[in-house]
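Hi C.,

You asked whether I'd gotten around to modeling the 72-residue construct. I have! Everything is below, sequence then structure, no commentary in between.
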Amino acid sequence: MIVRTSFAVAQWPTAASTGTTPETIATRASMDATLDQIAYSRGRFSVELPGLAPLTVPPWAEVGRVIEDCRN
């Protein structure tokens, strides 16, 4: 999975879910620097997976709140 922010481009390893609903899972440490880049990005950030359309996410405050909650 590729994560693009206004700061950098990061590549995260992924795994397929084992549940009944097809999902792609990327597990990151709570102190991963890319999470800070997402939270403080000056613009949108995007997530790209091979074979799927890129997902562009607006810089909503909720994203930063979720990251902070995972760290506490």
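If it helps when you're writing up: The helical segments are 33-39, 61-71.

Thanks,
B.
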